[in-house]
Automatic annotation (TrEMBL):
Residues 146-259 form the GFO/IDH/MocA-like oxidoreductase domain. This is Gfo/Idh/MocA-like oxidoreductase N-terminal domain-containing protein. One of its GO terms (molecular function) is nucleotide binding. InterPro entries: Gfo/Idh/MocA-like_OxRdtase_N (IPR000683), GFO_IDH_MocA-like_dom (IPR055170), NAD(P)-bd_dom_sf (IPR036291). Signal peptide: none annotated. It comes from Vitis rotundifolia. Pfam families: GFO_IDH_MocA, GFO_IDH_MocA_C3. Residues 6-125 form the Gfo/Idh/MocA-like oxidoreductase N-terminal domain. Coiled coil: none annotated. SUPFAM superfamilies: Glyceraldehyde-3-phosphate dehydrogenase-like, C-terminal domain, NAD(P)-binding Rossmann-fold domains. Belongs to the Gfo/Idh/MocA family.
Length: 353
């Protein structure tokens, strides 16, 4: 049976929408059907520049995309402050929702979005592309192996990049009325997500913000970190920043093994990635080197991770459309747990701990 082709509408013309437009084009079970912007001219220019077919619908409002009966699903690269309004409206119009991260400003807003999706029988997924890469599944195999990895003890994650002056002055991610979570929502979302992934999505018992938090003059976070502690004693730390060299590292340490990856959010190369696994590591006899070296595990893919995300989302949407299935709860559950920890970091920062 041929795959059901899911017709996507895109709300907004943010830079990341260019990447996801390409991903929709590459995914074998999805197609670019419509784009909407508050400016018809901007939507027209965006469609022409990003591979939309000549038959694509171009709209001068977000509402028009949601009112189109042929739109199955919407991708929303809107500022976080607009997520609640438009994601809820999309769900009420029975459009499946692929929502850019961070999913919401707080878990109360996200719960309203998820309730709207559930009550209208539509699939929700946030735009954490790395979770859909086959490397991620291979890393989970290693972390779940008691013989090779053992029991989880600690996780460290880091996502930083050096933003230029224009970004720090004008990007929506540093504007309190558009993306008030700043760096915590933009790249901290990934750091928290990686920690929860390693912890098999068990929530920590405590979250404490680390010293050294930096705010811009508008009061938006540009650098921060936190430590997480679980009931069984495992710990995690993360750092995220707009003021340091591009780094996307995760280190996961168990009683028997260590996993390391240096490009967990955006791979160095689209078609071939790697992670290292150290097992029962120890020194040589004279302690002049290591007796057991970490092994490199290479994972290849024919589709980039963003297209794999679109493909997975479209499979779920097609199952709902064709078979009347219920939406898959894995993805909203992951989003909500990530948001809960993000909220806890923010609360700790506000308490001054």
């Amino acid at each position: 049976m041929a795959e059901t082709l899911i017709q996507f509408g895109i709300l907004g013309c943010a830079d990341v929408a260019r990447k996801v437009s390409r991903a929709i084009t590459l995914a074998p079970n999805a197609t670019l059907y419509a784009v909407g912007s508050r400016s018809l001219e901007k939507a027209t220019t965006f469609a022409a520049a990003n591979g939309f077919p000549p038959s694509a619908k171009i709209y001068g409002s977000y509402e028009a995309v949601l009112d189109d009966p042929n739109v199955d699903a919407v991708y929303m690269p809107l500022p976080t402050s607009l997520h609640l309004k438009w994601a809820v409206l999309a769900a009420e119009k029975e459009k499946h929702v692929l929502l850019e991260k961070p999913a919401a400003l707080n878990v109360a807003e996200l719960d309203q979005i998820l309730e709207a999706c559930e009550s209208n029988g539509v699939q929700f997924m946030d735009g954490s592309m790395w979770l859909h890469h086959p490397r991620t599944a291979k890393m989970k195999e290693f972390l779940s192996d008691p013989q090779r990895f053992g029991q989880l003890k600690s996780v460290q994650s880091c996502f930083t990049f050096l933003a230029d002056s224009d970004f720090l002055e004008n990007d929506i991610r540093v504007k309190p009325d558009l993306d008030a979570l700043g760096v915590l929502g933009d790249v901290g979302w990934y750091c928290i997500g990686a920690i929860l992934f390693a912890a098999d999505y068990e929530l920590p018992k405590s979250v404490i913000a680390l010293p050294g938090t930096v705010f811009n003059k508008a009061g938006v976070l540009t650098s921060c970190g936190a430590s997480l502690l679980w009931e069984d004693g495992k710990v995690a730390t993360f750092n995220c920043s707009f003021d340091a060299n591009l780094t996307m590292n995760v280190t996961v340490i168990g009683t028997k093994g260590t996993l390391q990856v240096h490009d967990f959010v955006i791979p160095f190369k689209e078609d071939s990635v790697a992670f290292s696994a150290g097992i029962e590591s120890w020194f040589n006899e004279l302690v002049t080197g290591w007796r057991t070296m970490p092994s490199e595990h290479v994972v290849t893919t024919n589709l980039p991770q963003d297209a794999l995300m679109v493909r997975e989302f479209s499979v779920l949407v097609a199952d709902i459309k064709r078979n009347g299935s219920k939406p898959e709860q894995k993805w909203p559950t992951i989003s909500r747990k990530t948001q809960l920890v993000l909220d806890a970091v923010k609360a700790s920062l506000e308490r001054g701990l």
